[in-house]
Amino acid sequence: MLELKVWSDYACFTRPENKAERVSYDVMTPSAARGVLESIFWKPEFQWQVREIVVLKEVKRYSILRNEVNTLASERAARGWAASGGGFFAEEDRAQRHALVLKDVAYLIRAEMVLQPHAKDPLQKYREMFLRRAEKGQAFHQPYLGNREFGAFFSPPDGTEQPANIVRQLGGEYAERAGRLDLGRMLFDMEFQQAQKGRLKYRQHGTEGAWWVEGNATPRFFDAALTDGGILRVPVHLYGEVKG
Amino acid sequence: MSLLSQLRDYELRMRQEGKKPVPAGEQAGEGEMPFMYALQNVRWEVRLNADGTVRDVQPRTSGKTKGKDLGKPLPAPNLVRTVGIKPRLLMDNAEYVLGFAKKENDKNTAKRHDAFKALVQACAEATRQPSVQAVARFLGSHDPERFQAEHLADFPDFAPDTNVMFTVDGVNPLELREVQQFWAAQFAQGGEDSGGEGFRAECLITGEVGPVMDREPVKIKGIQGGQTSGMNFISANAQAFESYGLEASRIAPVKFEAAEQYANGLNRLLADPDTSLKIGGVTYAFWTGEGAVPLVGPALKEPEQVLKGRFTFQVKREKKQRPEEVRQTLWGIFTGQQPGLKPGAAFFAVGMTPSGSRIAVRTHLTSTVQDAVFRLGNYFAAQTLVAVNEKDEGRLYDLRTLVSSMYRDINKEHTAPDVDALVQFALTGRPLPQSFLVRLAARNRADEYRVTRPRAVLTKMVLLSRDWKELDMDKDSLDALNPNQPEPAYHLGRLLAVLDDIQSSVMRANTTLVDRFYGSMSTTPYAVVGRLIQGSQAHLQKLRKEKPGVYRLKQDELENVMTRLHDIPAKPLTTAQQALFALGYYHQRAHVSEGIREGKAAREAKAASDQTPDTDPSEGEDQ
């Protein structure tokens, strides 16, 4: 099991049902944790599978207003700007939106690397590479917690990390006695399926390298629960169902 | 748990308990409302014979004499309609039902009427109900102009935007189970049997895989400051909201039925003043997992009325109420009013603000009923404070009064964050923001009434809610004057009140000492204390010569304060110290006015006993 500690001043793991006016999940989602790991180290030869997310600090919610833009920057629009010499002016295309985010967060991510069928090298190689990179603070891009503006810091854990008692904080005495707090259904990850006429294009990796395919992505959810004070355990079987 | 599933659970529980839904704030009929039905006002009833010929038209009046008569409410098919042409089944406005144009030469009138006709035809074929077939037959041979001439001559007030329904030989087809099932089936989108190109996904509320909604079927009504036609929870109308090519409400896949349930659950809560609170731009809903909902909203909005004086009476009698007792009293009051309260049941609260046509969730709290009520008890206990005027003794303040004490004109301010902070403090004990103190201090300096009671109460609440490591303060006794308070800022506040009292007992100044020096004294006392004390010597001298009794009293009071002030802080006071300064000033003023009241009472008692009035030593001005 590989471990990584991440922390940040703010985080927003947006719930899909409150996406326009954002509301964060109380705990980091498995897909957000995967994103953090992939920003530090990823190769097509392996897949990250998040096993546990340990919440190290109490949940503090914080309400902010931010300016966000309404349109997506498309490739076609960018070509237009390149030709005309213009550009995108966020000032003319923004909306003020509310977000209920988390403040002062820290997590310990426990995850496994799982080799893809087309991998030729042993897993040990990739594990060592990840550990060296994490130790040195190297990342392909700075990891972030949910939203790009909430950049995160990371380091290998020093062994003193203890889960904060979130079960009690959020669930009160009753949840503490039961030793378990149900968080309801939480986004697990997106499931990609190749299709003739898909809604999006994505990269597929295999023995012949990488290629673009058309397909659909549908969100998958799971029943999230906190146990042992503040540990979110991700059922392994979910990764069998979702091929990322 | 997610907010939407909590709301859905509540709605399902209410339906199970046989509680009537309350769409549009009207009283519902008996029993459960069929799927996608809502109470709607229907003005006209077209009575048909079994062969589809018209017997007559009957008006259905709401009994209202003022304004436009929209008709009597009736459970009828409902849907959200914006610009597109979407007919309701067997009941709609006269434009859809009878083809009467709302606007002259509107090309779409015919299209709307045709859509209505087609839906009824489809329903007649699917259900094979004689009554529906009769309506279909009527529509087949319907001519708007002839119909108007033959049947509407007696009704000059017939308007195309009022709703029309049908009965066939006394049968209302909307009550037929088959018709209701047909209507419900219209919304089962994307199922294989309907052949639609629907989107199938895993519902984020129920976890079932199946067709999910495109648009929310029911809008949320009753959000303060929001659109009156209703608001959405889940929607994506701009590219930036969409992800992975998923549009509209598919960004968060939810089964159609589940969406109808959570929306109706929230509408039910918002329509009832006992389970909602609309204040300062924020709309709250409160509900429980089990049993009755404690009257949290009304208590925060109108504490004096809801708590019916019982609570205030106790506070007044004991002057200083222990929080524990206040909590128990409040719990007793709540259980007395609502015997169905379950202490261990889950308690939920959500605070929402409008943002365009969408709802923004500001707060989402989960605790237990007992915990929430006990926290509310702490909130009211934190409000206990001595009063300058006798009538304010033991008074509790509503949210709006507390928030408005921080502003010159509350109507010009964006108060949602303040209201929210207070509600969160009241229900969970989350500390109040330090920015409250900054605003209060600014108001205290600028406002001619200085530290009013609501300001003092709010100051006290903020001081109690947090840990002030830099402030040497005895938290247990902020209710009334406490000469043993260690922090010098507190006694500086007292000093200002005492000096002002001395001045006012000698002369009636147009601009009093407080008017001139409150600002500088509360921020940089070092700069002014010397001058103020020196200035008061002349007043004391005059008092000593003219009213020796009063002089002794005032001199004692001044000495009392001065002995507590070993040294004057050389630095400007911090925000927290300024708050304590304000409280010290307020406490001392309350103490002075209480002395005056006691003196007056003693004088009157004396006058009554020996009938020989004489000059009283404790004469002074009430400020």
How would you characterize the overall build of this protein?
The complex is a heterodimer of chains A (244) and B (623). In chain A, strands 1, 2, 3, 4, 5, 6, 7, 8, 9 and 10 form a ten-stranded mixed sheet that branches. The model of chain A has no long low-confidence stretch (mean pLDDT 91). Chain A is 22% helix and 41% strand. By secondary structure, chain A is α+β, with helices and mostly antiparallel strands. The two termini of chain A are 20 Å apart. In chain B, strands 3-2-6-5 form a four-stranded mixed sheet. In chain B, strands 9-10-11-12 form a four-stranded antiparallel sheet, with helices on both faces. A two-stranded antiparallel sheet of chain B has the order 1-4. Chain B has 623 residues and is of the alpha+beta class. Chain B has four domains: 1-16 and 194-270, no CATH class; 25-186, no CATH class; 272-396, no CATH class; 478-604, no CATH class. The interface between A and B is large, with 40 and 44 residues.
Question: Main attributes?
Answer:
heterodimer, A: 244 residues, alpha+beta, ten-stranded mixed β-sheet, 5 helices, B: 623 residues, 4 domains, four-stranded mixed β-sheet, four-stranded antiparallel β-sheet, disordered C terminus
Topology of this protein?
The complex is a heterodimer of chains A (244) and B (623).
Chain A: E1 2-11, E2 22-23, H1 30-40, E3 46-55, E4 61-69, H2 75-84, E5 94-115, H3 123-136, E6 153-155, H4 166-178, E7 180-194, E8 200-206, E9 209-227, E10 231-233, H5 237-241
Parallel strand pairs in A: 2-5
Antiparallel strand pairs in A: 1-5, 1-6, 3-5, 3-10, 4-5, 7-9, 8-9, 9-10
Chain B: H1 3-16, E1 37-42, E2 44-48, E3 54-59, E4 72-77, E5 92-93, H2 94-98, H3 108-127, H4 130-140, H5 144-151, E6 163-168, H6 177-185, E7 200-202, E8 209-211, H7 256-271, E9 276-279, E10 282-288, H8 296-301, H9 303-306, H10 310-318, H11 323-337, E11 346-355, E12 358-368, H12 369-381, H13 399-404, H14 416-428, H15 435-446, H16 453-465, H17 488-506, H18 513-523, H19 525-546, H20 548-564, H21 575-610
Parallel strand pairs in B: 2-6
Antiparallel strand pairs in B: 1-4, 2-3, 5-6, 7-8, 9-10, 10-11, 11-12
